[in-house]
Amino acid sequence: MRNILVASALSLIIALLGTPLAIRIFARRGYGQLIRDEGPSTHQDKRGTPTMGGAVILVGSLIGYSVAHLATLTPPTPSALLVLSLMTGLGLVGFLDDFIKIYKQRSLGLRSGAKLFGQFVVGAAFAYLVLRFPNSSGITPASPHISFLRDIGGSIGPYLFVGWALLLIMGWSNAVNLTDGLDGLATGATTLVLAAYVLIGNWQFRNSCTAFLVPNCYFVRDPLDLAVVAASVLGACVGFLWWNAPPARIFMGDTGSLALGGVLAGLAITTRTQLLLALLGGLFVIIIMSVIAQVGFFKLTRRRVFKMAPLQHHFELSGWAETTIVIRFWIISGLAVALGLGIFYVEWMPK
Description:
By secondary structure, the chain is mainly alpha-helical. It has twelve helices and two strands, in the order ααααββαααααααα. A hairpin with a 3-residue loop joins β1 and β2 (151-152). The model has no long low-confidence stretch (mean pLDDT 92).
């Protein structure tokens, strides 16, 4: 528990104090956001706002996690290191995308194929390695199963698992990326989901099958350290949100959104809650589904379901104020997290 407190507090302080420094550095170097002309007209006022702020979240998370282990003299675990590596790798892909936008002064960075290839390489490495590194009980960071509250059904085998894990990683990284369209929206929603994973990891640790072979126990390799990972990223997001809340003084960019989507997918895979994440991250699911519906319906009928996708821009064009959309979407995210946690704990309720 001390690791969780140290990691979250330190990463929060680093992000809270480091973000204004990043704002000054990025503004001085001209690392400002470029806005697409076809977007809502109100977004033109945001042109030039410093971007790539996700680098602060990455640095704060990694330092918070590392110092927490140094302070408590505990070694890092393979599960946590793999999730942090996934987050960092996807963050680097996002950084390249952001840097190309700034360097070439255009609203599009990496080509879609190159971006997906980068996500594929990072995700495939994670999916391959996460089935290795068994502990003394033979439990690896992930298992070749689909999971909900725990592993369900039979093994799908390592090859199908790699494909399934890649689908999760690329899906969630792009879902958070699509949600990051309004000030503070993706940061706040991600914070709520990460808070849920702090609780889930801690609960799995206290009911681990390696310590207590009781009904409903969990075969998760390093649940407490995964809670430390969630806490460190949570703290960094809260510190960053102070400056990213409407009106944002800095944007996380793809550096942050791809990294945060990756850490959510990584936590879901290593805590054996892959399908539960669809409930916890319900807002992200709604937003990515709005894009799929918009594109699919337009290709079939040449007509649109929404005024603009992702969904938050539809409400902007319908006349909703940006802060109204952000707060109401945060409420939806909070309700989704509450539903997911309720289902996670329901099997422990007295019968």
